[in-house]
Write a structure and sequence with these properties.
Number of helices: 20
Distance between the termini: 25 Å
Order of helices and strands: HHHHHHHEEHHHHEHHHEHHHHHH
Shape: elongated
Structural class: mainly alpha
Strand content: under 5%
Strand order of the largest sheet: 1-2
Number of strands: 4
Helix content: 55-70%
Length: 481
Amino acid sequence: MEGSDEFMKYRSPLVSRYASKEMAYNFSDRKKFTTWRKLWIYLAKAEKALGLPISEAQVVEMEGHAEDIDFAMAADEERKLRHDVMAHVHTFAHCCPAAAPIIHLGATSCYVGDNTDLIMLRDGFDILLPKLARVLDRLANFAEKYADLPTLGYTHYQPAQLTTVGKRACLWLQDLAMDMRNLQRARDDLRFRGVKGTTGTQASFLQLFQGDHDKVEDLDRMVTEMAGFKKSYLVTGQTYSRKVDIDSLSSLASLGATIHKICTDIRLLANLKEIEEPFEKEQIGSSAMPYKRNPMRAERCCSLARHLMALLSNPMQTASVQWLERTLDDSANRRISLPESFLTADIILSTLQNVTEGLVVYPKVIERHIRHELPFMATENIIMAMVKAGGNRQDCHEKIRVLSQQAAAVVKQEGGDNDLLTRVQADPYFSPILPHLDAILDPKTFIGRAPQQVARFLSEEVRPMLEPYKTKMDVKIELEL
């Protein structure tokens, strides 16, 4: 069957099932090998400008063939040479016969390999940052909308003092804002490997320029600028330090931890029926149970976030075993761990944006849960009101303690509703405060400064962070699966 061969071999679900086109392209062979050719062009241009015998015709010829890569020829060359960079040098030289003698002049394989990786890392961050900004924006709108909607707070997943739905969303936002700063810093800290030679000493280039150190420095600077970087690493071995990969991937793994936490919270709240992720009209929650509305998007985020966090151990171990100026046991590992980290981060951000654009809140369910727990939480307020009305604190505390335990027994042993308020209302001891009981039990009196905290946090920390991305905010996410 035509095209069926693609189903006869493993395909990474990160690409075939989930990832965005732009992130999949960022780590594609076409992006990689056209970048190699651009780097050879930058090198030739800079060497020509600094006086090496390279003609304009040679540069023009290379520029004319930057995109038309014969991948079949390159694969054939690699089978023969067992060297991917030389295979592509030969393939490029085949369509640039005039430029053939000066392609890759003075360079080592890592000139194209490492510099391309750094470009891909930078461009990967540039894809992720607006996506993260959109998630922050959607959650900020959600937090603002529900800033003063009281809800049960939970500690140890046991009912605790009230908070608000918006305030809880700010806890998520605060972690995401830390991730935003981490990703931006990791992106801005990236430098170019530049033009450093086989062990990083630039010896080959010093020889090309007949001992002229200034020209070697100029060459490094010019190529770095052409590639769009402000700085290159001043010292390298054959490769740039693999700690750079740790730095980049740790910011992504940390983002994974944040998103796992947020989506776990959403899953817990979905079980309580207080909040749900968006659910399509024809979506099936379960093949066996038609009534189910499983939080599958949040579950997907948690699943992939675990993979993202686990990937961090790869660059850690790789950096630790880079012997002296370099060893090649980094190569196969980095081919997997670098792209997969960015692809996975891309997927969970897109999925979380979709979730945050359609979060559904059920205020009546939230209110019912508050009603079940609030009488216990209000006991201190009842005691204070009784003392104000002339009662004795210790007497009142004992009365409330006894009634609370009776009400708790009804809830836990009989499965009944919390009837503490009915017991309070039936006890003549509490008659002085009965006219004020509704006010004492108003949930809005239990949320402290949550609405004010939300307003201040959004205006001072979240909105300013989103300002650079305001032109990229309108992109909506439609999940295909």
